[in-house]
Structures are given as C-alpha cells and as structure tokens.
C-alpha cells in the first residue's frame, strides 16, 4: 500500500521498483507524471552496455566516484522501448484525463520515445528543450555541440486549457529553458537542475499531485515542494532514496526520517 502525499505531507519518497509501484496506484490519482528514466543511450554493442558503471559513463573525471551508481541503464533500444511501453501504459492509467506526461530523453532515444509514448495511448504534443548552455560537455571539433536534452510532453486525451494570467492563472509555459548544470545543485550522476524541474512541474495545477517513478535524487520532489505541488517520488536505489529524502526534508524544513519512513 503506497500512501499518497497529502497537504500536510506534500512530498513522499517511496523506495521500490517503478512498475510495481505504479501498478499499486489507483486509476486517475495523479494530475501529472513528470520523470527522467534511465536513457539507456549510446550502447551500440553488448560490451558498451555491460562493461561500464554509470559513473564511468556519465561522470567527468574530476567528480568520479562521488555519486552512487544506478541500474536500468544498460538496455538496447528495442528492450528499452518495450520496457518504456510497460510503465507508460501504467502512467496513463494513473493520470487524470487531460493531465500531463513529461519525460526526459536525449537525441539518440528521442524518436524511440515519441513512438512509444503514442503506442501507450498518450497524445504526443511536443518536445521541450533543456539547453545546458555552452558549459555542457565539449563536442569534438567539427561537431555541433551536444548541449541539449529533451522533455517530451503529452497529455492523457484532450489538453485542458489553463486559466490566463488575467484569470488568476500562472501564464504561458515556456517550451525551452536555458540552464547550465551547477555542481552544488547536482546530487545524482544524471541529475536535472532544480530550476529546470521548477519550470516543468508548473504543468500540474497548484496543489495537484505529480508522480515521478524514476526519482533519483528527488529533484522533481524538491521542485514540487518549491512550487506548491504535491509529489510522489519513486526510486529503487537505497542511496538515492536517502539523498532524495534529505533534500526534500530540507526544502520542507522537516526531518527526513520522520516524514518519509516508508520502504517497500
Ligand atoms: C536518470 S535518473 C533520475 C535522476 C533525477 N532526475 C534527479 O534529478 O536526480 C533515473 C533513476 O531511475 C532509477 N531507476 C531505474 N530503474 C528503476 C526502476 N525499475 N524502478 C525505480 N527506479 C528505477 C535509477 O536508480 C535512477 O536513479
């Protein structure tokens, strides 16, 4: 039994497998599903996929060994797409009609992701761009810079129009966000900056519930807490569950242990 976040306890961090956890949630319980699954990107042959830790794959030498490794990042594209189908179908079941899906990916997996989002029944609406700026990992000379990642967005059926600023709403949501990675705000090998997640969580109505089934260091929960949204963070790896609980506890000004004691 997974307890959903409440007004008093607006962010909960649940330790467990995302598919098992999503299947345990009731139909239509969430306003949005916003997440950053393992990309499983770049492995052309088996050796690429199995012989490197995520630290070796993602971390610059000067920061090596500082953040825990994580699993689920070593599938080939066909397996990754089938697996995405499984969780995207559950995601659609738990999100209310008109609610949002926002899920990150990189340029290699973008076409596979936009296909599988639609196979799972979502209405694909667009691709938001996170511009990591010129500070992103350097490209080879003669290449265009790999300085963007993408947040595919979709809705569960027709899109619900939001109130305008004049009507007391929060105004237009930008489709592109420029934000360099800062070491002080990076708590996961592939963590997203808090300002980027604060931008995205605004697709959920104030006070509404976001589910993040691949929560990592809890950045979606931290952003939700800042923006007055509720959030259920699901993460499988114990060290990241601890980091997420600490971070969310700090934003809410509460003791992580007493707030988020639930373990699958
Ligand atoms: C790309 S990271 C998310 C990072 C996050 N956005 C942040 O800012 O910290 C993906 C996370 O999904 C977790 N994960 C992978 N497979 C999982 C599964 N089947 N169930 C739950 N979590 C899983 C990994 O442990 C990893 O921490």
UniProtKB/TrEMBL annotation:
Short name of any one Pfam family annotated for the protein: N6_N4_Mtase
Enzymatic class: transferase
PROSITE patterns per UniProt: N6_MTASE
Domain DNA methylase N-4/N-6: 31-156, 185-245
Enzyme Commission number(s) from the entry: 2.1.1.-
Any one GO biological process: methylation
Keywords assigned by UniProt, alphabetized: Methyltransferase, Transferase
Record-level Gene Ontology MF annotations: DNA binding; N-methyltransferase activity
Family label: Belongs to the N(4)/N(6)-methyltransferase family.
Protein name: Methyltransferase
Organism: Gemmata massiliana
Lineage: Bacteria, Pseudomonadati, Planctomycetota, Planctomycetia, Gemmatales
């Amino acid at each position: 039994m997974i307890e959903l976040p409440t007004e008093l306890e607006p962010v909960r961090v649940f330790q467990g497998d995302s598919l098992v956890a999503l299947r345990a949630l009731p139909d239509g319980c969430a306003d949005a599903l916003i997440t950053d699954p393992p990309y499983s990107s770049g492995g052309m042959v088996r050796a690429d996929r199995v012989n490197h830790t995520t630290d070796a794959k993602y971390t610059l030498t000067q920061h090596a060994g500082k953040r825990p490794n994580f699993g689920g990042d070593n599938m080939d594209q066909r397996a990754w797409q089938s697996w995405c189908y499984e969780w995207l179908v559950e995601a659609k079941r738990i999100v209310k009609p008109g609610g949002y899906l926002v899920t990150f990916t990189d340029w290699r997996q973008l076409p596979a992701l936009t296909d599988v989002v639609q196979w799972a029944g979502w209405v694909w609406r667009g691709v938001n761009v996170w511009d990591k700026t010129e500070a992103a990992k350097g490209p080879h000379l003669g290449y265009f810079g790999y300085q963007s990642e993408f947040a595919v967005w979709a809705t569960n059926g027709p899109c619900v129009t939001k109130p305008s600023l004049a009507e007391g709403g929060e105004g237009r949501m930008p489709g592109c966000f420029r934000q360099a990675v800062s070491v002080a705000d990076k708590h996961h090998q592939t963590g997203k900056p808090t300002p980027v997640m604060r931008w995205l969580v605004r697709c959920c109505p104030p006070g509404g519930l976001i589910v993040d089934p691949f929560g990592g260091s809890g950045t979606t929960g931290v952003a939700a807490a800042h923006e007055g949204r509720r959030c259920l963070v699901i993460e499988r790896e114990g060290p990241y569950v601890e980091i997420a609980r600490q971070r969310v506890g700090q934003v809410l000004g509460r003791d992580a242990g007493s707030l988020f004691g639930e373990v699958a």
